[in-house]
Structure formats: C-alpha cells, structure tokens
CarD family transcriptional regulator
Amino acid sequence: MPNNGPKVFVPKYGAGVMSEVEDNEYDKNRKYISICLLLNNINLYMPEDNIQEYEVRSVITKEEMEEALNIIKNNPNEIEKKWGKRYRNNNDKIKSGNTIKICEVIRDLYYLKLMGNLPPGERKILYKAEIMLASEIMLIFDISMEDALSKIRNVR
C-alpha cells in the first residue's frame, strides 16, 4: 500500500491512502483517483470530478480520535428499545462515516453486550463499526489492525 498520499476515510469502505492515477486506459478524458483501502485490501478508483459523491474526507487527528474514543467509555443516555429501528439507526450512523457516530454505535452496543442483550444481528453491526473505526485508527497511529481493535476494545 502506498504511504505517501493523503490519508482519507470513505464511508462504507473505511480508511485508505489516496493517490492519483496518471493514465486510465478506459477513459482518457477524465482524471481518476485511486484509494488503497485498508479493509479487504481494495483499490477504489473514482473520477476526480465525482469525488464529492463518495463523501471522502481526511482522517481526523490523533487528538480528535482520542476524544472520539472517550465516547465509548460512557454509558449511553438512551437506547432505542425496538431492535429493528435500532439496527437501522446504527447502520445509518456507520454508513455516514462520521467517527463520532461510529463511536456512539460501539458505545451503545458494548453496553447492550455488557447487559447480555446483544442480538446476533447487532453483533455483526458491532464488528462492522469496530473495523471501520479501526481502519482509521491504523492510519492515524500507524499500528496494525489487531492493535487498533485492541485500542477500541480496551477503552472501557
């Protein structure tokens, strides 16, 4: 994976490193961007002029990540009682790519897990939120996926 480009986060895909693609054999009239994603070792190619549609953002700073991780320490104020609605809300928060919202999902689902009330479908949502956040942590702190997941899970 290239280490010299801007570090970015792509909602629904996770964090990666961006680089410019000089020649595109399929479309000579457009400039393309390549993002080497950490999750699943995927290269995502997108036209430079459509990058806003993917809602690509820069990764946050170490200080901002530490603040976001502090959210996980707290108990939730209120958790939606209806499983289906909670599931959709949590999925929407993860898809937003907002680090704070992803930490809120992890906090809420850790709390349900601690109380013994985490359904199997939400275990998948929890894992998805953890790896999305971990991918950004990997780039920010330059650590492995295992260390990033450990950093998340040991916050409490």
About this structure: The chain is about 45% helix and 15% strand. Residues 120-141 form the longest helix (22 residues).
